[in-house]
Specification:
alpha/beta; FAD/NAD(P)-binding domain; Flavocytochrome C3, Chain A, domain 1; 2 domains; eight-stranded mixed beta sheet; six-stranded mixed beta sheet; 11 helices; binds flavin-adenine dinucleotide
Length: about 450
Amino acid sequence: MIDVLVIGGGSSALCAAIAARHHGASVRLIERAPRQLRGGNTRHARNFRLMHERPTPWAPDTYSEEAFLQDLVSVTDGATDQRLARLLVQGSATIADWLSDKGVRLQRPADTYTSYSQRTAFLLGGGKAMVNALYAAAARLGVATSYESELIGLDCADEHQCRASIRRGVAIEKIVAKAAVVCAGGHQADLDWLREDFGAAVDGFAVRGTPYADGAALRLLLDAGARPIGDPGRSHMVAVDARGPKFDGGIVTRITAIPHGIVVDRDGRRFADERANMSKSHFAEWGARIANCAGQIAFLILDSRGLARARPSALPPIQADSIAGLAAKLQVDPTALEVTVRDFNASIAATDGMSPRRCALAEPPFACYPLRPGLTFIHYGVAVDPQMRVMTNSGPPLAHLFAAGMIMAANVLGRGYLSGIGLTISTVFGRLAGEAAARHAARR
Ligand SMILES: Cc1cc2nc3c(=O)[nH]c(=O)nc-3n(C[C@H](O)[C@H](O)[C@H](O)COP(=O)(O)OP(=O)(O)OC[C@H]3O[C@@H](n4cnc5c(N)ncnc54)[C@H](O)[C@@H]3O)c2cc1C
């Protein structure tokens, strides 16, 4: 019997496995994806949020425990477990050093190309480099890792052991462990499950991350009596390029230039004020809006000045010398789009001088990024206690079953989003869950 079985292959699983091994446990890690696609959504992440009472090499100025907590309470509108939230914030104070110690490299604000960030640290080489560093650290420590291995059964009814069934190709392996840590991500890649809460609109969604986070492990836990938390109909969605892949488009298909143009539906009509939110995270509001559009499709229209201000994205914009020409390429009624642009330009002229950052769409060539809702994650998972033990519907937590990362993120992030909070949740809670699982195994 091994001490700790870790299910998943992203940052929460890796942090749990490494932490458990540090505490003397024998550890197996089961990653569903093939080796070249290991790392789940963590591969796509760029930065994580951390409190710091003084400037650090990775984040300038300060970001206090209370400021971080207040930000979390504010974006979630109170849908956060205060005890877990405080654990998360306090854990974030040491997670950068802990990760660095495992070989994860962070950018230094002085020599970075990213924008100034007081509250988050950026990974050098992005999430993929982080994943590679953590797998290497886990291997050095003696964590036994299996790829293309999927958890398909988990029985923790016996309080002394968890029995897992792992499918690898046609073979089924039975693993018995003193404790298990489930870090298998959310269910955002299971389109059938999504359809239960979002209806047929799901066919128009892009899933920004791994197709392997399909919630099968979450379903196993819920079916076994784990207490659910959050709302399966609530999600974090952003505007992405509609021409990107259905899965795994990652960060490069996100479209961030919305305030520099207008967004129209497939009838050529605007449906929201593109400049009502000029913050860096404005695109996060547009995912849900586009999800409500017919066909879950919309078009960002820019003129040459707007295009010059847009950040480069993976796919080049569709361009034409006239609005009517652009409309034809988009299969939008040219007259409707011309009327929309004319009305918009007239409204700019009427407010001239009052809103200097607004520009009429007047200078050809005109450009378009077609947009879809890009689903990042669902605010739903299993409830845990402060030791990361999975709570049950019948009351007490299971002493030997732990969860970390996106599968339990709704405990602290019941709604909303803060940049960098996903990785903080996965690394800090992953570390805590691994330590707690190893302590439990040592007592057995
Ligand atoms: C495009 C994109 C960009 C993002 N950028 C950021 C960012 O900059 N900062 C930030 O903080 N957050 C970001 N996030 C969110 C962040 O990536 C996640 O919150 C975090 O990676 C979650 O880590 P995790 O370990 O819980 O899950 P994941 O990293 O998704 O890992 C889940 C793992 O479980 C495995 N798995 C699933 N089912 C099974 C099974 N049955 N058996 C075995 N293994 C299984 C999967 O293969 C995968 O390896 C981003 C997400 C996306 C999609």
